[in-house]
Design a protein that fits this description.
206 residues; alpha+beta; Glutaredoxin; Glutathione S-transferase Yfyf (Class Pi), Chain A, domain 2; 2 domains; four-stranded mixed β-sheet; 4 strands; 54% helix
Length: 206
């Protein structure tokens, strides 16, 4: 049985849960309360010395970091495939997954943190800057998605990397302009996938 050390609100954990759902894999979720710093407990640090979720255990294998976990799942459970066959296309998926993590998920995390502050402490200039940065990412994707249904042509780990934070953009006050037709169509296609519908339901209950 696969075990996933998980914090439901973490977009990186969500990214792994999406992959597990896409591959229809059964697993046990083990809640790690980041609010209580359980990720810093000695037992958890033996699994991941960085003290971060997610961590996946499959038989005797212990894997951490969402990107590495997802690639492990792709290698170990290749059907349905979430990576292309050609090495150049696989490299492109990896680049976009890295881009999602560092330029979209991380930036949205800064916006989430700012908006969670008491109203009198929220820096509106920062809020606007973070929203603008997120829209810049979507503008870049708009050009790249021209003529494509998904980032790598077929649905892949690259699309999954963007999905968790795409779902909460309305809650963050990020309004996607109608001119970004390719990006909007792509987001709608993502929303129709059963795995992402399930995640959206989970987010609504948090």
């Amino acid at each position: 049985m696969i075990k996933l050390y998980d914090f439901p609100r973490s977009p990186y954990c969500q990214k792994v849960r999406l992959t597990l759902a896409e591959k229809d894999l059964s697993y046990e979720k083990i809640f790690v309360d980041l609010i209580k710093n359980e990720q810093k407990a000695p037992d958890f640090l033996r699994l991941n010395p960085y003290g971060k979720v997610p961590v996946l255990i499959d038989e005797d294998e212990v894997i951490y970091d969402s990107t590495i976990i997802n690639e492990y799942l792709e290698d170990e459970y290749p059907h349905p495939p979430l990576m292309p066959e050609q090495s150049s296309e696989r490299a492109r998926v990896r680049m976009f997954e890295d881009f999602a993590d560092n330029s979209f998920t991380a930036q949205s995390g800064l916006l989430v943190a700012e908006l969670r502050k008491p109203a009198e402490q929220v820096d509106q200039e920062r809020v606007q800057r973070y929203r603008t940065d997120l829209l810049r990412v979507l503008e870049f994707l708009e050009r790249y998605l021209e003529g494509k249904e998904y980032i790598a042509g077929a649905f892949s780990l690259a699309d999954l990397a963007f999905a968790p934070r795409l779902l909460i953009l309305p809650n963050l006050g990020v309004e996607i302009p109608a001119r970004l037709k390719n990006a909007l169509a792509w987001i709608e296609r993502l929303r129709q996938r059963p795995s992402i519908k399930q995640l959206q339901q989970e987010l609504a209950s948090l």
